[in-house]
Amino acid sequence: VFVQTFSDSVSRLQHDVSFLFPSGSRDPMFLTGVSFPPDWPVYSETLIKLSVYGENNGHHWLTSANFLGSSSFSVTDLLKSKDQQLSLSLRTADDSATVGTVVVSRMKMGEIEDGEVDHFTTDMHQKCTLVYESSHGSVNDKDNGPIMNAVFKNAVCKVYRFQTVDSKWMLVREQMAECTLSFSIPKQLIALYIQEDTCRIQELKDLGELSPHWDNLRKDVISRYDQIIKEYQDTLAELEKLTGPLFKPSCSKGQKYLEFIPINLHTQRMRVMCPRKTDSFYDVVTVGAPAAHSQGFKNGGLQKLLSKYESEKKSTAYQCIYYPPEQTAKAREILCVVSQLQPHISALADQLLQTAQQSSSQPLRDVLKSLEEKTEQFVHALKDELVKSALLALHAARPGYVSKCQSSAQSSPARADPHLSTAEKQHSVCNNVDGSQTPRRESRESPVHSDSIPHHKEYDEEEWDRVWVSVAKSLNCVIALVDKLQEQDNNNQESAPSHTLADVITSHKLPVATVVWWDELAVLVQSLKKCVAEVAERARRSVSFVLLQEAACSMAQGLQLQQRRDAVFSQALAALACGFAMRLYAGLEDKGFLRQLHAIGLVAQFESLLSTYSEEIGMLEDMEVGISDLHRVTFRITEAFGNVTCFCPRDHYTVEVPLPHHAFQALPEELREGKLLRVLPVLFNVGINEQQTIAERFGDISLQERINQKNFEILEGLPCFQTQTDIKELLDTLGQNVVTKKRKNVEILWLAGMICRRMNGIRLTSCKSAKDRTSMSVTLEQCSLLRDEHQLNKDYFVRALDCMRREGCRIENVQKNIKCRKYAFNMLQLMAFPKYYRPPEGTYGKVDS
Q1: Which residues constitute the domain of residue 25?
Q2: Distance between alpha carbon 547 and the CA centroid of its chain, in Å?
Q3: Is 767 a residue of the active site?
Q4: From CA 124, how far away is CA 106, in angstroms rounded?
Q5: SS3 string of 340-365?
Q6: pLDDT exceeding 90 applies to what percent of the chain?
Q7: If both were cysteines, with which of 159, 231, 510, 801 could 131 make a disulfide (CB 3.0 to 4.6 Å apart)?
């Protein structure tokens, strides 16, 4: 159907509606329709012309050869007609004959919009309805308000009308949108990576003078960091130049400068409106599998490469001290704590001084309590054996250091391992004219073992403990003086907060000198700040030395792997942030969801359709690590109206999501106070294509089985949801399916999706490019929800499924990506697909994806 409007000499094309007559049939398959955007000149006198064309070999070209007939009517004719419905005769081009009838009706969709919007539908058969809506939505659309429009752009909307089991009609609105976070989150991340690596270089330089061996390793590592920074700066510069679409099309997934950008990231929302029922929303984020396509998968993905990397680090650890992943992760965490808590403690100490000048006791006690709490966090983070042992190792790396076993090693050469190479002998556990040292071969996995770090007379091992005593003394003095001030103020209040922290560190207590109280408090506060700064500096240097070992043990491979991990994490985080924003904006009036958000966190369930064969194994390995890394992410809701932002080092990211004043003030107190909201990411994978058939019959599907089992255990381990009967039953069924040996068991995906929705979580669906298999999954999920939750007539299930795949948002997604309205399947491939994952005839063909 070709639709034109005529008004005041203005002729404009609205669109052509997809073909209605399947080959060999004169019976149309669907109702179809049009709507007009608010900026179109449609008035009561406007004429609307319908031109109908037949299908020709699966195509619907608007040519004279396919022309069947046309008819016209005015808006006034429709509005004044009985039941606001017109039955129009289709006439041939020369007006010599009638070739058919078109029924046009006005559809009021006030339930969808705040105001009334009229939709003129060409009613050809009462089987199913597809109403085509403006690609930009309506200005009064609840789904496109100011908050949503700040993040989600270029919406494509389709509206359907389906019949329920009780012969009533439901309206279904499908909206797909691009997300500004596709590019903004990766660009912020790259800037943070550059900032962090620049700081890492400075930290390595701040280690001070090192022996020649360690200094050469440091120079090599700094050189590698410089190279990464340069590459990231070039990538960021290229991204800043980009304008146009807010998504990376599937055909660009191998572009090096776009490796941080998620593939084909879109949001999809289905809104269901049933008579006399509250509207229901169902959201899903579609995104290509987070993977390093530009780096390839010849040697596997991150999961395999990281495992290989750790093995190689152990075998080459004679150059340095080997620290296992959990130790290096702890070192990064300590660096993060130092960077956050030291300035916080300093600020609280200054605030204590300012508050002490005021004649109010309670604020003084509140500030003192906060100071104690933050100092306690500082103590527990840094009083770690790793820090102490790393300080000893750093001392041993200074020029001129000679360990206590140097002489014995020199005097007893026969004790050396005859199988060690010259280099290994030169750098064995006790060596050290050049300052290097390493644990014995059998002890390399335990750097804090007594054999791993030399104990020696030149360095006083109790010095680190004395530093903590100084912190405790200073804190005790501050507490004692505040106590005395409150007593002198005769406030008759209870004594100051307990001295638990100070007592843990040391039982030493100092009397308060009888001097001017404020001057004395200032001296004590400065002393505390100085002691904390000294501890922080020592800890910073020690863990920086640990991280030097990590980079030096397998420098080129390790930093290259970090680049891959950075890119994959960037894609995963952009998709997660998109889903969080969408879920938050939809749930601002849902008190139960908001309570869950701050009390428990948010489940983010990734559904993957990748096969465990060929390159897609590497993609799945990348995806597994990238999604697992999301557990390091927290969200914070802020009062503002701007961009979603992220900050902090690689091991702990916080994403701030702004809300305008009126929305922010309606949040629970915990959220307004900036509580960090945790994320619970899980991944389930079931391959469905012909490559998965090969893997199941002749290959290895252990990766998929391990991923599903591991993530089921994560879900099952959330006790907060175990009390809900429906969730418990679904979890039990999911557990049974995970361990069942069944080919292409897509029930795992269906069950995981249902559990996620019951948990108020985020649903994300992926395949290689989120274009073809993802489209089949999303449309199947939508129709299943209509059947199971909204009583879609079972006789309409397959028709509705075909309708969404043929005319809905997903075929528009294909068009956006490859400029062709064909899913990239061939008949041979589809024979391997589960039944309900196959698109309708005429919508697929093998094209380059």
Answers
A1: 2-140
A2: 26
A3: yes
A4: 14
A5: HHHHHHHHHHHHHHHHHCCCCHHHHH
A6: 42
A7: 159
